[in-house]
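Good morning N.,

You mentioned wanting to compare the apo and holo forms, so I went ahead and generated the holo version with iron/sulfur cluster. This is what I fed in:
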Amino acid sequence: MENKEKQPLVQVKNLCKYFKVGRHADLKAVDGVTFDIYKGETVSLVGESGCGKSTTGRCMIRLYEPTSGQVIYNGKDIAKLTKAEQKEFCQQVQMIFQNPYASLNPRMTVKEIVGEALKQHGMPAKEVDQKVEQLLETVGLNKDHMSRFSHEFSGGQRQRIGIARALSVDPEFIICDEPISALDVSIQAQVINMLKELQEKRGLTYLFIAHDLSVVKYISDRVIVMYLGTMVETAETEELYSNPQHPYTKALLSAIPEADPDKAKASKRIPIKGEIPSPINPKNCCRFAERCEYATEKCFQEMPELHEIAPGHKVACHLT
Ligand code: SF4
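and this is what came out, ligand included:
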């Protein structure tokens, strides 16, 4: 809570990213998203594929130019950085990508992949070697791996290489774009634990992007649930899991497998009917209306505003 008195490290303000898909058609991938991230926090963005979570992350690292809205990093609008500030931003903000199979260049050795950014920053070759060795140890690999190619590694090991690459320039903020969704369940926990340890040791701040709520509970301080380009609910993790309010969040939570057989018997899965609708020219009403079992006429006519129902807990639903 003391965090909240400080200035956020990242401020996303009314961010929109539309893609033109025809003369009169806009694919509204992100449509008015606003949130803050404080230093040392992990904020998770969760929703089905196509909800705009990865596009939000990509706008925050300038891989996409937003259609409108702002991303403020350390008090500066990232669209207005000078050349020197851009260089600093690129060092301070890194991304770990979803697919460890596609995000590593198959023609480069591990040493080249992890050391690439260090070389670009002018580090002498000998120091690069030492730093790469240290980084590999940090992520649970070793110096014997340096001369190998990425295809010689398992999925979990490849993601460790991706994490070592992100850490190489000593960033303070890392966007983790579904870093574990391509990995076996047994490996997922190892990678999550490693990210948590790294956060504690290095004081990192994370935006963690995931498609379901099961994996983010143990790593997040706060969770944002997105649906079709908009935020539908956000709260501190404990509050969101114990007191979900939006019908979509409730359905996502009900889909989490329960390990305890007694609890599993008692819990009821809330099905979400139909498919996620097209984000092309969406209607100005509740975007979840077509799939919501509580939808009323108002839901098909008016877009619900995201409003605070308890300190730090916001919901976009006409019923709250
Ligand atoms: Fe369901 Fe209406 Fe709430 Fe949308 S606003 S989630 S349709 S009840």
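Residues 177 and 209 are 5 Å apart (CA to CA).

Happy to go through it together on a call whenever suits you.

Best,
F.
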